[in-house]
Amino acid sequence: MPDDLVIARPEGLYCPPGDFYIDPWRPVDRAVITHAHSDHARFGHAHYLAHRHSAGTLRARLGEINLQTLDYGEVIVHHGVKLSLHPAGHVLGSAQVRLEHGGRVWVASGDYKTEPDGTCTPFEPVPCDTFITESTFGLPIYRWPSQAELFAEINGWWRTNAEQGRASVLLCYAFGKAQRILHGVDAGIGPIVVHGAVEPLNAVYRAAGVVLPPTLRVTDEGVDAALLQRALVLAPPSAHGTPWMRRFGNYSDAFASGWMQLRGTRRRRGVDRGFVMSDHADWPGLQQAIAGTGAERVFVTHGSVAVMVRWLTENGLEAQGFKTEYGDEDMEAPTAASSHPGLPLAGEGATALS
Ligand SMILES: [Zn+2]
Ligand SMILES: [Zn+2]
To answer: Are residues 265 and 208 in the same domain?
Structure first.
């Protein structure tokens, strides 16, 4: 419609009256970035705008960029469009983008999660007429365990391994998930060792005031076979099956991801354990978040777009899909589901909607 505050363009989601993009996937002049995951924050834009807690992670990935930052709730006006950022509860610095112009209010969610996790500002519903939502886990089968249940499981696995003299290698995305695990585990069980891809992100979180237990690198003095037998080791999924893992000898491995809810994913990953853990809202979370905005119109950007659109339409909302190129950071590993037909694919949101 001509009055829309956000439309889909080949470069990304575009705000016509404001002349800027939200999380564009091609280089543009002005990009509002919801968070620093690589499919949302890309190289090559002339100007970036993001939450101030995204500055560290954006610069760690993109180097010296022309970046303006905002606090949550701080309003700026650009070409008559009032723009503000609001907590999305996804990773450190993640934000929903609220746009107000000509009496209309639109909110673009980026990625979000409704349960607070202690490592980023919890999600807040922002009232709006039109809500642009993700739907990465937009199927009724996706229901996450509570944080307490999840960490009881992880702690139990680690404790048993430590008692039996085995390292506990937990594969998880380096930005967001690793810091949630560090924040949530019982650090009294044993030492914690992190892969080189994880520690720079830990530093950004600690600088933002997030409490994380002490972490060691495998190259640190005192990190020997005896220590590793009791350790929790956090590594990105791409480390799985590489020579880096050999130093852990007889270890137990596990993978932390929302996809672990699916029977068969853990087996295909070739790990001993799967922990159901996601930085995205589960099915009830998506419904709760969408209802919380009071929006009458909903656009769905990535994930299970068709299912979510149908559900929203059946519930009396005006809903449609937006074609985007967002992926899913859970699926970065070489052994990811993209090489296994029959699983929800990392790129599903990029191609499967109209
Ligand atoms: Zn994300
Ligand atoms: Zn995403």
So the answer is: yes
